[in-house]
Amino acid sequence: MSAITALKAPRRRGNTGIALSRRAGMVFVLPALILFAVFIAYPLFTALSYSFFGWTGILRGDFVGIENYVTLFTKLPYSEDIPNAFVHNILLFFGAMVFQNTVGLGLATLLHRLTRFKRFFQTMYTLPYLVSPLVIGYLWSLMLSPLFGPVNAVLRGIGLGELAQPWLGNPQTAIWVVVLVTAWQWIGFPVLLYGAALGGIPEEIDEAASLDGASAWQRFRSITLPMLVPAIGTVSVLTFIGAMEAFPIPYALGGSQGNPAGATDVLSLLFYRTAFESGSSNAIGTSSAIATLLFLFIFGISMLITMLLRRAERKLF
Amino acid sequence: MTATITPSTADAPSDGRDGRRSSRPNGGARRRRPKVTAGGMASSVFLWLYAAISIAPLLLMVSNSLRTTQDMATQPLGLPLPPDFTSYQKAWITASFDTYFFNSIFVTVASVLLSTVVSLLAAYAFARTKSKLFTALEGLFLSGLMLPVYLAILPLFFLLDAAGMISNLWGLILVYGALGIPFSTFVLSSFFRQLPIELDEAARLDGAGPFQTFWRVHLPLVKPAIATVVVFRFVPVWNDFFYPLILIRDQDSYTLPVGITRFFGEYQTDWATLFAGLTLATIPLVVLFLLATKQIVSGLTAGMSK
Amino acid sequence: MMRRRILTAAALLTGSALLLSACAPSASSGDEQASGDAVTLKVWSWRTEDVEAYNKIFDVFEKEHPNITVEFEAFQNTEYNQILTTGLAGSDGPDVPMVRAYGQLQPNIEAGQLEPIDGKVDGLDGIAPSVIAGAKGKADGKTYAVPLATQTLQMFYNKQIFEEQGLEVPTTWDEFIDVQEKLLAAGITPMALGAKDDWILPIFADIVGSARYGGSEFEEQVLSGETDFNDPDYVASLGIITEMEKYLTPDVVGVSYTDSQIQFSSGQAAQFPGGSFEIATFRNQAPDLEFGSYQVPVPDDAVLDAPVSPAYADGNFAINSKSTHQDEAVELLNWLATPEFGQLVADELNQFSAIPGVEYEDAAMQEAWSNYEDGQAPYLLLVDFRYGEPLGTAVLGQQVQKMFLGETDAAGAAAALQTGISQWFVPGE
């Protein structure tokens, strides 16, 4: 280990160097590639191709070009539901990002300094992740019930009765409940990952900077933050994908229609009800078009985030 | 019951209890004693408060699993006094826990093993090559994360049906194994990238081939990352009911979550039994997590910095 | 060189997978049965709560038909449509699946996944037309399934609370309002409604408003194109909802359907506007609860002069066209259309059978059934307006929430409903 540390010490630059020939690399990638091609790529692209056909139930009809896509933007309910749901997906992403990078990072920082109970807290914070999100959604709707829920009862109990309200019945609060519950369930991941990254910062550097008179903020800005960039990047991309694909928690909290009055609607719910609750026989065509657009959007933005982060990493190191 | 927090300006303590820390050079004389300050108190309060928020809904789940559904209907937030264990008995029998439990273990372990092994190899290659082909492949793998599960089920179903693998646990394992690749390669490759290239150079000088380098030098260093990936893949596979509902027709091959879905009715849900079933199903995950955190938490940093 | 070989291998593997799946949908080989041998029929349903009852019911069938064994399996309701779609498309699916009614049945019919049963199954003639309509193909008019149950929508009330407050079942609109006012004055929530769940709201709208807009008379007119949902009578029927708001829990949009069930079954609310499917739930949740049901009286200016219970068919049993046991499946469907099965539906499932001539032992069920026989109406949006996107029920559910939130009024909600269904509904077809 010490030899490795010594090797590593001089620089971090050039970590992503070439150590494998293309041929050897291919051998390493092959098993995953085969599995991926057969069970993900093939079904995925087949399913996406469905969006270019007309359908009668499960029977594929004629090639219709982009007709299903045109429907999405010109016909009700899609032309109204898509922008509405899309905004909520974006809120979900930014809300979760803010939550994870403030509360999550805060918890990770505090835990990093902790000597006792560290694992206890880490376990506590990760527990919600262990329960299926659908059930987490149901549990929170029980907690937030205006009639029987403990949340309002606690608020009244501590003299904050004015804050008690029908959390999931008010369009203004309902979407934030979805955002917070989603971020809350997933918080264990950023806490662990940020904790790991913080632990990876060599103390010598921090101490040296401290001796040189750098303030806490300066040290955070120029030492801690750069070291956290890869972890923040990983969390950002996964959060983005998670927010765009959010399904079980919105479903459990607001049903397939995004109650109340579409306030918690997200794109996956729109996909779900178009595909499985509709009386239209072209359900597969329309719903595949929704999924294709969603997929392309997520893919494009994720790639963009990844690229920006790689660039930021290079700049910071 | 206050957790010890070192003041925010202090350097991380090295009390020698933790192997990771003791191996690290420390500032000796400059190190301040940990003491409880106002800031420390505030942090403590914050940590405990958040812990309470974390487990409140889960306590509700456990508490309600010890009550009858009728009791819940009249008093939604009553305490389980005296606790009623019949729901556990019912959950165990109705959801055929004994059979489904082993199916779940088998499917989850095998598929996580499969996805982790192939992802480790692929992630290593992604981190240690520089060519457009591999960048493209990495992008392709990442696209799998964006796969809307409901969308791809139809072609997936036909694929397995044609191969005669419906109701076959191996079919399910292959699907889950493949589904784990995007997340696993994504996380693992970022860890492999953290490892200095000099490691490879040194290994090559010692005459090690690519696979030996991977196996002897890199793998031990990313152990904690492996633990992370295993836990964060294990959980969704263990909890998933969608794929087995569609892909498994034979009741003897059901997994635990499919058994649990039986308590969700159209107009009435058997909450008590549902919560009992969920509590039972969550216990193995908690155990796994407790075992794995040691790896993830205390060792993860090694993979990232040393 | 090596790379090419690897790529070729990968391509081959992928290719063969593609080939395999290309012929997938036609794969319909099941294990063939020699005639006369024991046959096992697979029956699928979304009624997870009824598994025990169905096992009992099919035991009766198996005794009478010793060569057939019925294997009943229930799947989660919310995933059932997808399970059924793949089940009917692939091998190893059900022989007799429970299928949805009305609009949601059409995709299965149009894709040829179900066998028409006209002329094969006896006993369908006695079934009410609006109920059997739920088992027919919209395009070809053929019957594809045997309806299982009729759901009727009424106002359930807590007998004990009514007694304690000295209240009688109202028979006029004024008495109806009077009951609500007295309950309110006594500090009891008059009606429990879970307006957070959109699907219950069109049910509520029809319970209080069907007679006001004209029940089946209006249905005929709107289907023929004589009128539409902007009709003043329909708008006025939605106006009743606003009038009822003060008798519901405050912030009603925050109350979930399950909360409202608890409110009623625990005696915290005196009435529950809902479907007959609630009876089984209430019996389970609160075995001691004494409840009855009544039809909401006719308001002033109503189109109809007598109260009605809106109703619809819920659940059908059909035959998978890929089933290798067509004869036995027909045998089973014939049995499902007998009064014997109808009686078992009533006794074991606590549901109203679609088959006439069934007796209801449960007092609450008998009461609800005789109410329904006194005045029938279709649950309009479910029966006629779920054949395209958006579903009529979904649009109105959301609009009623907006009414409760003060974002729209009755006229606006009706207009939105009309705009929504106009996306696919052509009058007179």
Number of contiguous helices of chain B: 14
CATH class group of chain A: Mainly Alpha
Shape, principal axes of CA atoms of chain B:
globular
Q: Roughly what percent helix of chain B?
A: 55-70%
Mean of all residue-level pLDDT scores of chain B: 78
**Order of H and E elements of chain B:** HHHHHHHHHHHHHH
Radius of gyration of chain A: 24 Å
User: N-to-C terminal Cα separation of chain B, in Å?
Assistant: 35 Å
Question: How large is the share of residues in beta strands of chain B?
Answer: under 5%
Q: How do the SSEs of chain A run, as a string of H and E? A: HHEEHHHHHHHHHHHH
CA radius of gyration of chain B is 24 Å
The CATH architecture of the largest domain in chain B can be given as Orthogonal Bundle
Name the CATH homologous superfamily of chain A: MetI-like
Question: Under the CATH scheme, which architecture of chain A would be assigned?
Answer: Orthogonal Bundle
User: What is the CATH C-level name of the largest domain in chain B?
Assistant: Mainly Alpha
What can you see in these coordinates?
The complex is a heterotrimer of chains A (317), B (306) and C (429). Helix content of chain A is 72%, strand content 3%. With 317 residues, chain A is mainly α. Chain A has a single domain (53-316), classed as MetI-like (MetI-like fold). In chain A, helix 6 packs parallel to helix 12 (248-254) and helix 8 (171-186) packs antiparallel against helix 12 (248-254). Chain B has helices spanning 19-22, 38-65, 69-74, 86-94, 97-127, 132-143, 149-162, 169-194, 198-205, 210-221, 223-239, 242-247, 256-261, 271-305. Chain B contains 14 helices and no strands. Chain B has two domains: 19-84, no CATH class; 93-305, MetI-like (MetI-like fold, Orthogonal Bundle), CATH 1.10.3720.10. Chain B has 306 residues and is an all-alpha fold. Chain C is α/β, with parallel strands linked by helices. Chain C has helices spanning 2-22, 51-64, 80-89, 106-110, 129-132, 159-164, 173-185, 200-213, 215-224, 232-244, 257-265, 278-285, 326-336, 339-349, 363-374, 380-384, 392-404, 410-421, and strands at residues 39-45, 68-74, 96-99, 145-158, 189-191, 269-275, 291-294, 309-318, 352-353, 376-378. In chain C, strands 1, 2, 3, 4, 5, 6, 7, 8, 9 and 10 form a ten-stranded mixed sheet that branches. The interface between A and B is large, with 119 and 123 residues.
